[in-house]
Amino acid sequence: MARQGVLIEDPYQRMTDDQIKQVHKASLEILKDPGLLCFNKRAADIFAAGGAHVAPVASSDPPHWLIRIPETLVADALESVPSTVILGARSPENTLVMHGDEPRVYFVSGSETNIWLDVDFQTYAKKADPSVEMLVPEFIPRRATVEDLCRSAHVAEHLDTLDGFIRNVNIQDSDITEQNKDVNKFFASLNNTTKHVMAGLTNLDQLDYVVKMAEIIAGGKAELIRNPLISFITCLVKSPLQFVDDTTETFINICERGLPVVVSSSPQAGSTAPIKEAGIITQINAEVLAGITLGQLVKRGTPVIYGSVPVRTRMDTLGDSYGAVETSQYNVDCTQLARFYRIPNYSTSGVCDAKRPGQQSSIERLLSNITVTMSGPQYLHCAYGLLDGNSVFSLMQAALDDAHFQMIKFFLRPPRIEKNEIEDVLDQIRHVARTPQKLYIRYIRRVMRTGLMSCPYPFEGDGSVDDVFYRAHQRTNELLDKPVPHIDRKTTVRIFNEIPGLLPRLNIYEEGRVL
Amino acid sequence: MSEDLIAALKENVIQGRMTKDDEGIDEGLTGPGVLELTRTALDSSIPVQNIITRGLTAGMEIVGEKFNAGDYFIPDMLASAESVSAAMDLLKPMLQDSIHEGKGKFAIVTVAGDIHDIGKNIVAILLKGAGYDVEDLGIDVPTEKIVEYVRTAKPDYIGLSALLTTTMLVMGDVIEALKNAGLRDSVKVLIGGAAVSEEYAREIGADAYCADGFEAVKILNDFGLA
Question: What's the complex ipTM?
C-alpha cells in the first residue's frame, strides 16, 4: 500500500488552457531560436544523433555547442516519457506513486543547506514581576555534519505529513571529501528513514557506489528498478538556456541506468530569466523540456520528473527571493505546465527569505505552502525546516512545518455532503431544536473520535507567554528519542564491505556509532 | 436485576447517552439510555437514593476521572452531565420523599439587556450533572425579577451571566439591589461571561468569578465544604 499524499480534487489554476498553449508554443520557439548552449560533448552528440541542429560555437573555451531542438524531437520525447513515476522506499508502505495527470501531492523535505541551526532556551524574568519567567530561544548557527543529516532523517521518519526525504543537510565534516560525500549522505539518509530518499550527486565517480548501495538494500539490480528507493535531482540546465558539463554528464548516466531523476531548472526572474511572468515561465519550460528531451534520447521511457524551482530576484541583493509572492505564482504555473504534459511535477513551496523562525518565516512559508499545494504538484519540496532561502536548516522549524501541514492537509479534505450526512444532520437539528439548551455539543464526540475533526495546534501554550518554539523543540527531542528502523545488521555489514568511503561511525552496529 | 439496571445506568452516564437514540463513545452501543433506564428503575421501585448515588453520581465520578486523565474531553463531560441533568429532572418530584440530600439550590440567569445563553446553558448542565438543584431563570431577566426570585425561592447560590461589556455593569446593579432588599447575605453571587474577570467580581462585591462551567462546579463544591 503506497502513501496516499493529498489528492486535490479541483486544483487551483492561474493560467487558462489557452495561456498554457501559448506558453508551450513560445517554449518550443525558444528551443529553436535562440536554442541552448551545451557545454557537454556527449549531450551535444546525443542531440545531433537524435536530429537536433548542433553547431560548435567558434573558438570557444571551454568548447561548447549551440543546440537547436526541433518541435518534432520534443514531441517525440513527450510521447515516450512515462506519465507515471514510482519512487520506492525501504518500507513498501512509503512508496510514492505519481501520475502526471493526477494532482496527488506528496510532501517532501529539501534542499542541501550548509548551516544547521541549533536552539538553546534562555530564561528571562519579567521586569515588572520577576517571579514570571519565560523561555526565549537563542539560535546558534554552525556548519552541518553527517550526524546532523542522520538526525534530520530520523525526525523525518516520524513526521506524519512528510512523504519523502530529500537530503536537506550538506555534510561538511573534516573527513568528508568529494570522493566520499555521496555514499555517506545517501547511507546516512537511508539508514535513518524508511521513506523515499532523493539527493543530488556531488561526484559522478560515486554514482556506481550509490547505486550499488541501493541495490544491496533493495535486494538486487532488478529489485531496485522495481522499487527505486533512491532517486536523483539534477540541475543540468543553468539559466538562461545552458547545459552545464558535469551535471549533464551525471544526468545522462542516471538515465542510462533507468533510475528516476528530476530535470530541474531554477531561473531567477529579473536576473537569469525575464522579470515578467510570461518570460520566466516560458524560459523555465523550455529548459525543462530540453532536459526531458535529452533524457528520452539517452533512454526512451526512462522515468523523469518535471522539476521547477523558479524564483524572483530580491531587489536589494539580487539574490533569490523565495518569500516573494511571485515565486509561488511561478510554481503554480509550472505545475499546470507539467500536468499539460502529463509528467509528474517536482515543485517548491515553503522556502522563505526569513533568516530565523518567527512571524516572517511562518507567513512566507504558509502562503506558498497553501497556494502551491492547491495547484496539485505530485512531488512538493516544501522546505521542512528551511530558512534563509536554502541556506539554513532548523529541526525545530521542521516540527512547526509538520504542524502547519497537518492543518493544510485537513483543509484540503473534500466536503462530506452526501445523502446520509444530510439525513443525519437533519435528525440532529430537529432533535436539538426541541431541547431547552439548544446545544449540539454531544454530537461532537463521535466526529472527534473518528478523525473527522482537525486537531488543535499542537504547540499552543497557556497564553501567558509565547512558548510555541519551546514546545516545538521539545517535540523534536521526543521524535529523536523515538527509535527508527535502521538497515539490518547483515545488510549493513555487506554495505560497509562493498562500498568504499563510508565513515565507520555511521555503522550503528559498531562502537562509536553516530546514532 | 436491580444491580444490572444500576450498572447499565452508570455505564450510559459514562457513555453520555441520554436516550436510546443517542450515540455513545463506544461504537455500536445501543439499547436504552439514561432517561429510559431511570424510568425503568423507578418502575422497578429501586430507591431514588440508589439511582442517584450508585448510578448517576457513580457514573459522573468516572467521567470526571477520565476527564482529568485526558481520556475525555469537554463534549464528553457535557454529554454525561446533560444525561444526568435530564435524569435528575425526572427524579425531582420524588426527591422530597427520599432521604437524598442535594448539594444546594443554584439559580442561573443572563442579566437584563443580554440575550447570550450558550455559556449559561453549559454551566447549568454541568452543575446539574454535578448534583446541584439548578433553576434556569432565562435570558434578559430584569434585576427586580432576580431580587424577587431570591426573596421567594431562597436559592443558596445565584449565577449571573453576561457576554457584553455594556451588560456586565448590570451585575453590579443586581448586587446593589440585593443589598438594598436585605438579601445579599442570604445568597452567594457568582459571575461569569466573556467580559468579566476576577478583578471585576471583587470590584462589584460578587462572591466568586467562574471562568467556565468546570470552575463553577469546583467553586460551588468548595463553598459547600466550607
Answer: 0.75
